[in-house]
């Protein structure tokens, strides 16, 4: 064995210290950097498109304030007040600068500060969305896991069938069914309105439960389906055989090995689900009479209040980006293998 | 040029092993059916750690029999090799002994005893106790048998902790010791790395370290060196031989490569189409092959076996 | 491929349901027993011989309104699917062949679009750019297009890396010829899967928008609009939302079923390319799961 000591088997020529640092802090930073690299351009493009909407729409605050009969001079005067006579790119630059400082401008319809209005709505919407995510994750997790552990049995088939049914139920259909059964029929929950958590946890939960359940169906379905798929896939992997041969118990293999690797795709699904959740809030808040973010979006859009709509879109993008960053960070912690392909 | 079989043997099969290879044990009644040679027993008749008696494996759905009766007895510190082309049933036989036959297959006849326990009546919990602590295995493609998202050291420490009840810190220390004992340079570094950061040869060493972490008495090496290049393969084989001598580990070495088996084993089974076509001491099988297929295997080696030129130190 | 899809029970069921929906869309107004806009004297009546599904709050025949409204939903969802296909697939295929700059730009754009809550954008854009369903569907189609972009790109990449395409490139074949001759066959099945899925998504979007009263002027009947008007009278007619809700759900389900059937007959390749099931975390950026039923 003259060649035994050749350096060939050592694929990583890094010094030990560097390698270890890379594992801990570096992993988190790399995930952040990668996410930022994707989302900074996303943000720029999306805000530009959003801002261009006003020019494309031809809407003007003068129309809203002065009515259809306004003279061209009056219209020009109002537009100048709003700074709309300046070149497009200058307007975009100013607006973008304000957005970066958290200022979203004032509403065309009532002159109120849009940031404040959206902030009020967000408290409602985020309560509902967070609760919906919680339900979605817990229920989806339970269903997906049980289906995977009992794969190819009737339990698996029953869960798969149930998941298929709820996956084709749009949030507003679920919402109507829930109102019919639990509010109108059984009087268990209030059918509309919102009570802040400060005025009592019970009433708060009572008001957000039905909308959250309505929103959660889609999340439950996707998480369950994805988790079942990836867990079943993980159970087919050789490292499970390896763990069995090492004499680890089925429990330990599931929690320590299979779940760890099966979790990634389900988490990634959650990141992709969030925009849908924000979108669907438009409909569910309408059904449940919640003065939330989605309702504000709908009302401003129908009123032609362009700055308000722009504000809504910017905030929705920020929400989506922030949520995806969060998911990426968790992903990086759970499965370092996810970095390999990127 | 001396015949290949001699060269294959002289590497590690020491003279003593060849001497004791002819002994017969009373238990090897089934073995007599094929080759007449019993398993090796170093001094006296120690109880076998692994005994397969006429093990038959079939396809539950199709009712087809895939493996038509394999018998072998493994005593502490001995090594049995199974040679055959892919699809000959050698891997299924190993998996049957480990209790991990894939879905449609099951043991349809014969018996497997691990350390005196018949595996037919084993409860899952008992299996969990037995695996790792008494019987363990390494396979081809070592990367896939390690969890990709857990550091190597933690995977070894987990086995130590669970199987031997050591503390977290002691298990970590033991993991590094184990990595050192499989002759990895810088075991601390390796212990903190993920499987995808290691080369194939290193991974196979890691897999061996994991497999022996709970101090098993039997190690099944199923094509453990197949995907490795020749020098690394030789190192791994040396490592296995070393472990066997140092710790009294009994080996089952499965390979399609006659040279690998010859280098490590006292007894050899040659399998083809699920049938044991020849069984006997390594020396016998290599020097005086009785079956046509064995002769073919040896002849192929002499024709194409370039290994002998690449590893000149194997030439005695 | 069509024949093999129809050989599956699921494929036949899906095709039958979708065919029935198509018939409704084409001939619905002719099949309607009453004028969908004619108000009657018996508002909120239950099912009867004259009104199989009862009447709404203005005494209009619900069945007639459902039949009449089917055309809007079907046209709208087809519009979404084909806009998405047009906007997404071509850049997806080209991104592999037109060099790194184009690839980078289109990838970032796809990331952008997929990150946007598309119902919110559809609502915003429609309200600002004019209250028409067509605009809404075009916008939604553009926002869903990353699905086609990724599917087409993944399939093209798979083909581009295969030896026979390399051979074609080496032998001096033009880009156009390679796309036509080799890429198309590989791209078609996953595109068909994505089309079926997006038609389903389109249905949900049209229903959601019409539910909000966006895109269609009030007296005109739509499935979503029916649900919205039922919402106000749940106390009187708790079962009223059942018919339009079931219609929407069955249609979406049939679309998904068809997508699964196509995926099944196109084998592992199609399965891998469309993400679900079991997309690995490290392939996240290349195979985004398809947007399923919800919005």
Description:
Chain C: InterPro entries: BP-dependent_transpt_permease, MetI-like, MetI-like_sf. Chain C: Residues 271-295 are annotated as: Disordered. Chain C: Belongs to the binding-protein-dependent transport system permease family. Chain C: It comes from Streptomyces populi. Chain C: It is found in: Cell membrane. The complex is a heterotrimer of chains A (342), B (316) and C (295). Chain A is mostly helical and 342 residues long. Chain A has two domains: 22-100, no CATH class; 114-339, MetI-like fold. Helix content of chain A is 75%, strand content 0%. Chain A has helices spanning 16-57, 61-66, 72-81, 88-100, 114-149, 154-167, 171-185, 201-235, 238-245, 250-287, 293-303, 306-334. In chain A, helix 9 crosses helix 10 (250-287). The longest helix of chain A has 42 residues, at 16-57. Chain B has 316 residues and is an alpha/beta fold. In chain B, 41% of the residues lie in helices and 21% in strands. Chain B contains 14 helices and ten strands. In chain B, strands 6-7-8-3-9-10 form a six-stranded mixed beta sheet, sandwiched between helices. Chain B has a four-stranded antiparallel beta sheet with strand order 2-1-4-5, covered by helices on one side. Residues 1-42 and 309-316 of chain B have low confidence and may be disordered. Chain C starts with a helix and ends in a 22-residue tail after the last helix. With 295 residues, chain C is mainly α. The longest helix of chain C is centred in the middle third of the chain and has 37 residues, at 175-211. Chain C has twelve helices and no strands. Residues 268-295 of chain C have low confidence and may be disordered. Chain C has a single domain, classed as MetI-like (MetI-like fold, Orthogonal Bundle). Chain C has helices at residues 2-7, 9-31, 62-97, 100-115, 118-129, 133-144, 146-160, 163-170, 175-211, 223-231, 242-265, 267-273. At the A-C interface, helix 1, helix 6, helix 7, helix 8 and helix 10 of A face helix 4, helix 5, helix 9, helix 10 and helix 11 of C.
